[in-house]
Amino acid sequence: MRPTEARIQPLEQTDDPELSEILSKTLLRDGKPINIFGVLAHHPKLLKRFNLFAGFMLTQGVVPFREKEIVILRIGWNAQSVYEFGQHTLLGLERGLTDAEIKALTQDLDSHNWTEDDQALITMADELAADDCVTDQTWAKLAKRWDDQAMVELLMLAGTYRLVSGFLNSAGVQLDDGVPGWPQ
Q1: What is the largest distance, in Å, between two alpha-carbon atoms of the chain?
Q2: What angle do CA 37, 50, 14 make, to 5 degrees?
Q3: 127-138, pLDDT tens digit by residue?
């Protein structure tokens, strides 16, 4: 069971100028930070460093954005983090995924006609969620496309969003207005 209410309420505003500056650099909706950042704002030093690290994972690196979103969405699904899945549904659509692909990320691998490269990413996410280790077979499939730099990034991306999903689930971070939940 996941919490149905927030266990930590998001901060929407603060009198602390440093925290206000940090929050102003996060994703805002209707002029306020989205809920994940409002909750992380209870620990300003961690929020500042999280923004640097997770921001890099999300917006930079060598792995294309579409492929990052496949990994993040599947990790969010495996963790049953509706907040993570909802936010990245929107990002995934912006980054080249279709509604059908996003829905298929909540189903068995054979529910969609994925490319071999996409199948390897999904399987990697599944294996990391199940056992915290990618099998030799999946590693070999990934290594056909990705070099060592990209492999490091993919593993760290998956790990980052497992951490985020666990945080969101446990803190009871609620969906922001306008963010979808699970696909129908």
Answers
A1: 53
A2: 40
A3: 999 999 999 999
Cα-based distances in Å from 102 to 125, 127, 131, 142: 15, 19, 23, 21
Nearest one of 6, 78, 18, 73 to 43, comparing CA atoms: 18
pTM of the model: 0.96
The pair of three-digit structure tokens given for residue 22, joined into one six-digit string: 């940090």
Q: Are 35 and 173 a contacting pair, CB within 8 Å?
A: yes
Which one-letter amino acid corresponds to residue 82?
V
Q: Torsions phi, psi of 29, nearest 5?
A: -135, 125
Q: Is the pLDDT of residue 29 over 90?
A: no
Q: Map tokens 């990209």 to a residue.
A: 150
- Boundaries of every domain in the chain: 17-59, 65-171
Tokens 């990618």, residue located:
134
Whether domain 65-171 has CATH 1.20.1290.10: yes
Confidence of residue 121 (pLDDT cuts 50, 70, 90): very high
Q: Give the percent of the chain with pLDDT over 90.
A: 88
Read off the pLDDT of each residue in 150-171 and give the average, rounded to a whole number: 98
- For residue 96 the two structure tokens come to 């080249």
> How far is the C-alpha of 104 from the C-alpha of 74, rounded, in Å?
10
